[in-house]
Description:
Elements: H1 12-33, H2 40-62, H3 73-76, H4 79-88, H5 105-130, H6 150-163, H7 168-192
Helix pairs in contact: 1-7, 2-4, 2-5, 2-7, 5-6, 5-7
Amino acid sequence: MNVATTTDQESRAKRFKAASSAAHERVDHAVMAAQPFANTENYKRFLRFQYRLHTGVEALYADEALQPLLPELADRSRLPKLEQDFADLGESLPTDVEEGTAQPLPEALGWLYVVEGSNMGAAFLAKEAAKIGLSDEFGARHLAGHAEGRGLHWRRFIAALDAVELTGEEEVRAENAAAAAFAHVYTLVQQELA
């Protein structure tokens, strides 16, 4: 696979961010309006939302074709930690969850941008979870930052994302996929938290 060299101005991640900022804000407001950290019952609904999201993208994290392009991708999956969170709280895993499938490269990049980006916002959510007795060792493991720090972990992902070479048509598909991912997340919020 060829590697593209991009400047910050041409950064794919920055284009994704600019194109999806309104959708991102809409999702953030919807999540916080549901008060997921007001009590344990609300938090359990939040966990269900997160589980549905991460189960739906797990195939991307396991996709062998993406591993050389996005180093440590498989290790970035938060699904195992979500499963531990359910166990910590004595909850069964949801059974009515759709598993996703591998996607073409442009679409995979758009979806992964959205899901990985949510880990940056998880720093705030982890602080809120602590107010109801949850932590990165109990019940809110999936909100924990990476050992090397959220910022560095994110920058490594973005550097790899930006380095993947795509055609102009594929760039449009990737950007559209990021928009579709935010729309999907918003739908899940409405279904599980509203």
